[in-house]
Design goal:
Elements: H1 6-14, H2 54-58, H3 62-72, H4 82-96, H5 113-123, H6 131-139, H7 146-152, E1 161-163, E2 170-172, E3 176-177, E4 189-194, H8 196-202, E5 207-211, E6 219-221, E7 223-227, E8 234-237, H9 244-248, E9 258-263, H10 268-281, E10 284-288, E11 298-299, E12 311-321, E13 324-333
Parallel strand pairs: 3-6
Antiparallel strand pairs: 1-2, 4-5, 4-9, 5-6, 7-9, 7-12, 8-9, 8-12, 10-11, 10-13, 12-13
Helix pairs in contact: 4-5
């Protein structure tokens, strides 16, 4: 695979029979017409690090984790506050036809989607990322290093660590870091979503990846690449009716909306370098999601004959670099009245005055 380090190539030659095993997860098999070339034997991971304890691979200690969390606490992204937040949540309740106690109004919805859009435009306008926005994000180190992924995630089941019995200690959990001590096979159906606490706590954009049907075996990364498998495109799964409670303020943010498609192995640093080119090509559309704006994933720019804030259901290719999501050959349509009720996860943009999330 292009971009592999000299060390990796030497390691692979030295141990030709030690090919990485497939991940211990429930896998949805690709269709016979699978078009994604399997490069999993050439992934950017030293074979000797497969399943090796993360502390050993990254050479980090409990003390280092504790110090980083203590010195970086409170640096996370801040969302709408006070009256503006309540006004946005009230507008969502009006679209859904709910009263202050989240019970259905007899007269039904008070607002249309178009009327809600006016509130969104005033309080949390949707504007596209510019190349400068993207390069500034990279320059400001909003994307985490592998060590920062380990530091920024909260301890818990499925994470990288759980809290140890003694204060200030961390035990290894089931989670892994992509290309550090685990990998995903090309074409494996995988879901991706932002880890919410990582950016609300520390303003670090970490992507949670997992195979279909696997509850705890998360893999974490700063980039994601998904592609159509057979006749099945990459899907933007915005969740179920209950998730609209996030937008109304009835429920706090929690992960649910995901991107789902066939996994494509890639060099994260090389993918990041290509993003400005993709943004200018006219072939990729920017994708957003915020349940206070709408109950589905939406376009954050005009694309073809469709205006910004149109619904995007799926695409042939999707890449994610931190909070920026780009889709190629997307399936776009106009929103429908009542569609907000489907709901979804909340994800925020670090620059609320400039653009919407995710």
């Amino acid at each position: 695979m292009a971009g592999l380090s000299t060390v990796l190539k030497m390691a692979m030659k030295a141990a030709p029979k030690a090919a990485p095993r497939a991940m211990p997860r429930t896998v949805q098999q690709a269709r016979p017409t699978e078009v994604i070339e399997d490069t999993s034997k050439e992934i950017m991971i030293d074979p000797k690090n497969m399943d090796k304890p993360l502390k050993d691979v990254l050479d980090i200690t409990d003390e280092e984790i504790e110090i980083w969390k203590g010195t970086h606490g409170g640096s996370g992204y801040k969302d709408l506050q006070g009256e503006k937040l309540e006004e946005m949540q009230q507008s969502v309740r009006d679209v859904l036809g709910l009263d202050a106690d989240f019970k259905p109004l007899k007269e039904g919805p008070k607002k249309t989607i178009d009327q809600h859009r006016e509130v969104v435009a005033a309080l949390k306008p949707i504007k596209p990322w510019t190349i400068k926005d993207f390069t500034d994000m990279i320059g400001e180190q909003k994307l985490p290093s592998n060590k920062e992924i380990a530091f920024a995630l909260r301890p818990g089941r499925g994470k990288l660590f759980t809290k140890g019995k003694e204060e200030g200690t961390f035990d290894e959990s089931r989670g892994k870091i992509l290309y550090v001590n685990d990998f995903i096979k090309d074409g494996e159906i995988t879901t991706g979503r932002l880890d919410i606490p990582a950016y609300t706590d520390f303003d670090k954009w970490v992507i949670t990846l997992k195979g279909i049907g696997d509850k705890d075996n998360n893999i974490y990364s700063k980039t994601g690449y998904f592609k159509k498998v057979g006749d099945t495109p990459v899907q933007f799964d915005h969740g179920i009716t209950e998730m609209s409670r996030v937008g109304t303020g009835q429920k706090g943010k929690f992960p649910h909306a995901v991107i789902k498609g066939g996994w494509v192995n890639h060099n994260p640093e090389e993918l990041i370098k290509k993003v400005p080119e993709y943004m200018e090509s006219g072939e990729w559309v920017q994708v957003g999601y915020d349940p206070r704006r709408h109950g589905t994933f939406y376009t954050r720019t005009e694309f073809g004959n469709y205006p910004a804030f149109s619904v995007i259901d799926d695409a042939e290719e999707v890449i994610q670099v931190g909070p920026l999501v780009l889709a190629k050959r997307p399936n776009i349509r106009a929103p429908k009245e009542g569609e907000y009720k489907r709901g979804g996860m909340v994800a925020r943009n670090p620059y609320p005055e400039a653009r919407g999330i995710y």
